[in-house]
Amino acid sequence: MQNPLTTGINTTNAPDANGRFGEFGGSYIPPELQTVMDEVTDAYRQIVQDPAFLTELSDLLHHYVGRPSPVYYAKRLSEAVGGAQIYLKREDLNHTGAHKINHCIGEVLLAKRMGKKKVIAETGAGQHGVALATAAALLGLECDIYMGAVDIKKEAPNVSRMKILGATVVSVERGTKTLKDAVDAAFEAYLEDPVDQIYCIGSVVGPHPFPMMVRDFQAVVGIEARKQIQEMTDALPDAVVACVGGGSNAMGIFSAFLDDKEVKLYGVEPAGKGLDTPLHAATITKGKPGILHGFKSLLLQDESGEALPVYSIASGLDYPGVGPQHSFLHTIGRVIYESATDREAVEAFYGLSRMEGIIPALESSHAVAHAIKLAQSMDKEQVILVNLSGRGDKDIDYVLEHYPLVDYEVNGSNGNGFKEFLAHIKEK
Ligand SMILES: *Cc1c(COP(=O)(O)O)cnc(C)c1O
User: In terms of domains, do 367 and 318 share one?
Assistant: First the structure.
């Protein structure tokens, strides 16, 4: 297996020594925490050079996560859409069902190398918490997950998973008792004991070195996919599409293609109930430069610079900030940022389920929705590669309850209704 860390890094890609991508990124944290971050950066720079670490990481990605994940040609979907051919990078087939396990294993391995006893993190819907608890169980470290009391009630199955995996779920009772309060509580806990613990951030966000490090741990996705699609089609894809919450799955697949100028890259943000309402989380499309959680990036903020409450049907996408490298890639025009609404995501959710027998996560459904739109404007000879970041098992009850099938006129189990269904998508 190629070295997933060093081969993913190229010139367009790397931040400067201060962790800056153009004007974005960096580190805006109290001095005590800066010392801790500098230690993490040093440790990371060492392990990137350490063959034993890289071998251990590659072995776990292969034998435990199940990498390489396949690239799959979605033939029926492509034919029904009637434009470019759509291929899916199947991160939904990883152990635990999404891409997050890739960076969680990297972070916990690093923690172990640094002699930490415990990994801590916040979680919203519980996806990051479960992935981290899994990696901690695998590598024998303690794990505390900070979670808002409201989210604990809402996300019972993930809370149970974390407990079964041996993590302690710490209920956060302050503020709105949701994700932002959980981040604050986890940061405070980290400051109390930065020697025995390490904070494992769940995306390409936070102070330097996390945007770089999490990206590098996810770069394996793009390295594999670039090779796989070339083997399958004898060429690079015309476009690569990924959903963007914090931006880790998107950076993972994009980084391998940044130097291939002929490959168009599309990041898809959650437009929620619509970009003209307050109920979305389209940070790049609608945000302005600001500082949140220790780094500078585009940010959905009010007049005074406070992060706005955000919304998406996909809880993995509703973050008011975005990874600093995405803000940079937007500024230089290398990546095009689009958005998909809740409704478009649900249509893609049903569409992929019915056309291919793959139930995608609602997060990933945003990428599929944009790929369907994009394919219609392209030729049959062209190829779109979609990063299918996770599976939709977690979303099935919610979707059936709030977006019943009858609304979509997708009746019958044997192909009836598919044409009408896609015609309906096309009309818009
Ligand atoms: C968490 C999550 C996301 C969003 O996170 P990124 O850092 O933007 O990748 C996307 N898809 C799935 C399946 C997730 O669980």
Answer: yes
